[in-house]
Amino acid sequence: MSNLQMLYLNDNSLTLKLSHDWVPPFQLKSLSLASCKIGPHFPKWLQTQNQLISLDVSNNGISDAVPDWFWDLSIELVFLNLSNNQIRGKLPDLSFLRYDDIVIDVSSNHFWGPIPPLPSNSTFLNLSKNKFSGSITFLCSIIKNTWNFFDLSSNLLSGGLPDCWLNFDSLSILNLANNSFSGKIPDSMGFLHNIQTLSLHSNRLTGELPSSLKNCSQLRVLDLRENALYGEIPTWIGGSLQNLNILSLKSNNFHGNIPFQLCHLALIQVLDLSLNNISGNMPKCFNNFSAMTREKSSNPIIGLADKIWILPSYLDNVLLTWKGSEYEYKRKIPLGTQLQSFNASVYAGNLELCGLPLANMCPDEESTPSPGTDDDSNTLEDEDDQFITRGFYVSSILGFFVGFWGVCGTLMLNRSWRHGYYNFLTGSPGDGILSLIFRVLISFLETF
User: Fold this and answer.
1) Helix (H) / strand (E) containing 426
2) Which residues contact 394 (CB under 8 A, 6 or more apart)?
3) How many C-beta neighbours within 10 Å does residue 233 have?
4) Cα(40)–Cα(367) distance, integer angstroms
5) Domain 6-293 sits in which CATH superfamily?
6) CB count, 10 Å around CB of 410?
7) Shortest CA distance to 313 belongs to which of 327, 328, 303, 325?
8) What mean pLDDT do residues 111-136 have?
9) Are 373 and 356 in contact (CB under 8 A)?
10) Does residue 84 come out as left (phi exceeding 0), alpha (psi in the -120 to 50 range) or beta?
11) How far apart, in whole angstroms, are the C-alpha atoms of residue 161 and residue 170?
């Protein structure tokens, strides 16, 4: 197949066993091996492929470092996905990638060190779930960019958030969560006019919410939980951010009343104000949050539709606390809670609600039985069946005969005990059914 240019083997369980010095007879332009098994070493035969513009080797079991020669041939790449491996080492300067609408996903690996210079002509940049450290002040050196998606969450980043977000007006999703960022939320984040998801949770941010955020009217997810933010909950959230689906201010230092303006959030599906210093009355209009009964919609796939490769998708989610434990929320009945113990009738009328105990299973729900399901009931019944064996019945019958004749036989053979017990029963004030039975029994034994 010397003329082969595009090879897609992704999303299978294939294992590619190739010799170390194999030289392909073709020059590929697009290659996708996602979820195939090609690790633990980085595939050396890719060194011969100098025309690649799209490469997906995600979830391949690679635990090697990326060799230097790979970055030399990557200059033509427009799509690069190395995610969900155990690749280690540092990322080089990626600003040399020269084409527009570049997609880079290196998430869920062991890359470390400072964030390298990034291409300003990217569309999708995902560097999350690695070990990158240091600050992100380098962002202020990027004057013009085309970023739609930028995810640095779950790293070891620290320092203050840069105050130059007016240069990132095209951002739709910004996720800086689960790092060690400190200081205040910069006012310039109000220039993110196209932002739909802003996730800054699990950091060390302080101060009040900047009023400039009310300009981010396209926001659907605002997740600021687990920081040290303080002040009163701003009233402008309800007036200016009416597209919100998720608002989480959990585990901060907010105080004061819950503003009734939050009732204007007609699309809200998750509202978490727990673990703050909030006081006062609950707004009565909270019972109007009808959107909480509907399935949560996901963000659209970011990127261009005319490309030949499949762009990574992004599904918003949030952690909810049930009985002191956190569960990931995607679309309403959370597993592992008492909600499965309720009768299905209590959820009647919510036609799009899915998950146990309803018969309507969620699309991504696994078939593994959950606590309280019929499978568990069958298991308990099986265990009961194993316990009630023939020996159980035999021992029960023997126990009855020994107990019964141990009492009745003694009274039958010993007339003086029989008379004494009869006199005791007839002379006692109690006239319960047990006493009556014994008096009849002793009268019967007197006939022998």
Assistant:
1) helix 415-427
2) none
3) 22
4) 31
5) Ribonuclease Inhibitor (3.80.10.10)
6) 12
7) 303
8) 95
9) yes
10) left
11) 18
Contact 252, 205 (CB under 8 A): no
List all residues 6 or more positions away from 120 whose beta carbon is below 8 Å from its beta carbon: 95, 142, 143, 144, 145, 146, 147
Six-digit token string for 97: 């990638």
**Through-space distance between the first and last CA atoms of the chain, rounded to whole angstroms:** 105
Please, are residues 294 and 267 in contact by the beta-carbon 8 Å criterion? no
| Opening angle at CA 334, ends 333 and 335, nearest 5 | 115
**pLDDT reported for residue 289:** 84
Nearest to 246 by CA among 225, 217, 266, 222: 222
Closest alpha carbon to 264 in 238, 302, 298, 241: 238
Q: Helix, strand or coil for residue 263?
A: helix
* CA distances for 200 relative to 58, 140, 145, 179, 238, angstroms: 26, 19, 21, 9, 20
Count of CA atoms in the C-beta half-sphere (13 A) of 417 = 9
pLDDT in tens, 348-368: 666 667 777 777 777 655 444
CA distances from 89 to 45, 111, 126, 131, 261 (A): 20, 5, 17, 10, 49
Contacts for 285 with CB less than 8 Å, ≥ 6 apart: 260, 263
pLDDT band at 52 (very low <50, low <70, confident <90, very high): very high
Domain assignments of the chain as residue spans, ordered by start: 6-293, 332-386, 389-445
Q: What is the pLDDT of residues 266-315, one digit of tens each?
A: 999 889 999 999 999 888 888 888 887 766 554 443 333 333 344 455 55
Half-sphere exposure of 24 (CA within 13 A, CB side): 19
Q: Do the beta carbons of residue 214 and residue 240 sit within 8 Å?
A: yes
Task: Provide the 8-state DSSP code for 227.
Answer: S
Residue 158 backbone zone (phi > 0: left; psi -120 to 50: alpha; other: beta): beta
CA–CA dist 262, 113 (Å, integer): 42
pLDDT recorded at residue 383: 45
- For the chain, give the number of residues: 448
Within 18-119, residue ranges assigned H as helices are 68-73
Which DSSP state fits 15? B
* Mean local confidence (pLDDT), 256-267: 94
Distance (Å, whole) CA 226 – CA 251: 5
